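Onboarding guide, step 5: your first structure request.
Type a short instruction followed by the sequence, for example:

Predict the 3D structure of this protein.
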Amino acid sequence: MDVKTGLFYLFAAVLLFAGFRVITARNPVYAALYLVLAFFQASALWILLKAEFLAISLVLVYVGAVMVLFLFVVMMLDINMDTLRRNFWKHFPLAATVGALIALEMAAVLMGGFRVADEPKAPVALAQTAGEAVAQVSNTRELGKLLYSQYLYPLEIAAVILLVAMIAAIALTLRQRKDSKHMDPSEQVRVKARDRMELVKLAPTLAPAPVAPEAPPLEKKA
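The system replies with structure tokens like these:
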């Protein structure tokens, strides 16, 4: 077993462990951190497959932007996990059905095998040292051609879905909570000095009225 195969098994094992911990972690923050670890391992596998652009895009887009947004949303929402676990068995049949459907689809794809397409045509440069023709293919260039020609509509649909998800995450953080005090910034900007201080007219201070001395108690005659 060479070094490349050993690295593949190492990254794949860590990826499977991180994916398992994503769905079994009780704390949502830990689950999001394990998902970040899974993204890093997937990017390492793509580097082994010589897909450098996809690996860097996964780290920059998902780990650097999407997962940071998820972490902020999870921390701001302060999700009550006891309430979520209470309704676990209520939604278990639907979740099991969707999971079985996804497993069947993946099995159908894996059993059918993968079709190896021909390499894209690219300018050929003559190698001076070996005297052979070496095809210089840019992964980024070929991927850009496919995305903005053959897969343009799926790319636009995915962009719209991500935009809607981002707006929904921001809207969830803007909800009003009864147990927290907050102030409207617009009201603070429009405040005037007379709104903060009020002059009240009071009557002048009067001297207290003199108090009459108390009469001595009468003595009883024997």
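Each response can be followed by summary notes, for example: The CA atoms of residues 113 and 221 lie 128 Å apart.
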